[in-house]
Give the backbone structure.
Amino acid sequence: MSPTIHNFIQLDLAPLLAATLAAMTCGLLGNFLVLRKLSLMGDAISHSVLPGLVLAFLITATRNPFAMLIGAAAAGIVTVVLVEVVKKLGRVEPGAAMGVIFSVLFALGVLLIEQAARNVDLDADCVLYGQLEALSFAWFPAADWSVLLSWEGLAGENGLPRQVWTLAIMLVVAGAFSAVFFKELRIAAFDPALATTQGFHAGFLYILLMLLVAAATVASFEAVGSILVIAMLICPAASARLLTDRLRSQMWVSLLIAAACGVGGYFAATRLPPLLGHDAVNIAGAVTVVAGLAVGFAALLGPRHGIIARFIAHRALARGVAIDDLLAALYRLHEAGRESAAPRELAPVVHASHLNQAIAAATGRGLIRAEDGRVMLTDHGLMRAADLIRRHRLWETYLVDQAGFAPDHVHDTAERLEHLGVDPEPSDATVDPHGREIPRGGPRGG
Amino acid sequence: MDAAFLKLPLLAQHGSLAREESLPTLSEAARVLTLQAGFNTTIVILGATLLGIAAGLIGVFSLLRKRALMADALSHATLPGIAAAFLAASALGTEGRSLPVLLLGAAVTGVLGVLTVQWIVRYTRLKEDAAIGIVLSVYFGVGVVLLSIVQSSSGGNQGGLNTFIYGQTAAMLPSDVALIGAIAGIAILAAALLTKEFALVAFNDAFAKVSGWPVTVVDLLMMALVVLVTIAGLQAVGLILVVAMLIIPPVAARFWTERLWLLLVLAAVFGGLSGYLGASASALFPRRPAGAVIVLTSGAIFAVSLLLAPTRGVIAASLRRGRLRLRIAADHLLEAAYERDTSDPRPSLTATEIDSVAHLRAWPFWYRPIVLAGLRWRKQAIRDGGDYRLTPRGVADGARISRNHRLWEQYLITHADVAPSHVDWSVDLVEHVLPEEIIAQLEEQLDRPGAAERASPRGVPSL
């Protein structure tokens, strides 16, 4: 048994597990909050469970986790109900209603703590003071991997700290809830009205979800503190939403990201600063920072919705459009009897910043060729251009004949539609609304 | 949120102050409330009042612009700025805990947070609520990490930075209050000068844009004022609760009025009152965190407004609805009595008939005596032995209701293509609230040729 492993199990395993389990529990539930635009409800609840916790503590005068859970769940329900009351009866917009309720409840909690702190000892290992660092010395097993395999080592007198067990149970409950009600939650997330017509009450599911969020908040409070709760309710689900398009995969991805945030944040907080000659930093804060980085990476690198992917797709589209515009302009000159054009004549049609690129790309594809500084269509390019112009004029005809546009208003719309590669319904017209001939057939039609 | 930090300001600081708190005497309370309790107390109360007024005014515009919770992201995002400014100032060898330096740092990261929210909304598929949640938690997390660095590098002394999380007026120096007061004063002045521009942009930004107003500039100014008020409130109220000063007074004021100038005045009054009472209470009970007291004061004002405001208040609205329901119930009785025999000049209303209407309309048990008393009070019916008998006025009202019903049925059949067998029910909902002009229009249509065939399934009685 190397001392490294010994130290790891004694010092790191419990807080690492707590951070990871809390992140995964909140991350899983967060999927439904983010989809239903309830992210801030999670924020509001995690603020307003405070008075519930303190009241439970004041009434029972113990840190009995069950009493805490009841207090927090009650506070969660009170928050949801009050927000609804203020929204419906007071006709206040949702954001402001949440702001009013959670700040008042939180202020109440702060005052109650003042009250409680005078009479009873709300100290460091108190439920309210979630501190992962405190778990470091909470587990003194036989300092061997084998403790992880024995029931006595895990759950016995000197087993894993209670907070870790609470979080593990919460994760199982949240997982079971998501699995059992997956279908209902999915419908309710995307179409609450449909959910209600399908015979189950979307409002009931909403309350159930909020109860679980409140419970997860409390379970996590104990160990990891509440910044982490809010960050984990929102960040993993939001990152997963940027990476996937299906709810099922979004949920798995969010679980993975949450776990990675927990583990990554833990090691970033405890291992990185010592390398720089510093003390370890706050673990919950570091996990949150990692979660923020996850959102940032997902926003940048997402395969379909990522900013880079969209930028590339946008550039490709812009280049395609520029080539199309170039071909169409040359075709119109061709109609007017001119076989070639100087690049600067094309500047009004193709934006100057794209012109040279477009000419180069079109030349590379064999659509145009350049001679003596002038450009002209190749046979292949002529066919492509004719196809484009045909589609443009067919759309103009369609817009005038079928959609009731005025002939002098159709050009811009047709200019956009021609790039989509979709023809309007066939028509017998041979000339467009401006009296110009519509070229026959596409490149394949001859 | 942020409960991890509760212990620090509450126990580490107050816990060591073993002074047992006793209730202040009335004369002490009077001295504080009339600003005669010493220079420091007075200046703190004045600062908090000014801050409340400024936050109330600015909050009105962010409420109208539907950006209430943006301030929440903003205020949480100030924490890393505060900690970073402290670290930077300490590294440069100057006094880290200088308020202007800390507030500058707060403003920088606060604005950065708002920009991040807007960036997320603009460039990703995430909605604003998720963006606000991400920014407030991640920036706050960065702040917590930086605070732990502050703590370890300055030997366990967090330099009193915790006061920014929960707020503590007791820790404020007169110079701090002067700075906060100046910031609040600037915000009040700007709000007063730019009311028209802000109102225009808040109510209809598209119209403002086509009218040639620089909407982006006005928006930025509005945001700048929110930033100013937020950082001014940090030390007094704390960054978690400062958002409440921007939200609650305007929302409470909104219950009392539909006019913008009155809304601004009321929000300023409510905000100022919360600041004044909160800071006074905190001066009388030194262990009470001022931020929480200020927020709870404005919360109480909000609760009173929600319940008692004359038109939008919950009590007034439910009374109004209840009265309307009772009047409609009485209408149903008159209609039933009139329609039983339209030729009867004084139709009676027997107990069994009242029972059947009550059953059909599912009246609660307590409706019946109130409805009947109402009929007598409005002189629509008189008691006749055990039964009731309509007066001429009651007959006329019954005829009017019955006629409205038929007219509206006719309208639905001829104009809205509702099947004749389905109109009765939908008409029932609207017959009581038909305005005069619509009745006149319907009557005119009734007189046109061909109207008779298309008319109500039961014919339209004439008056």
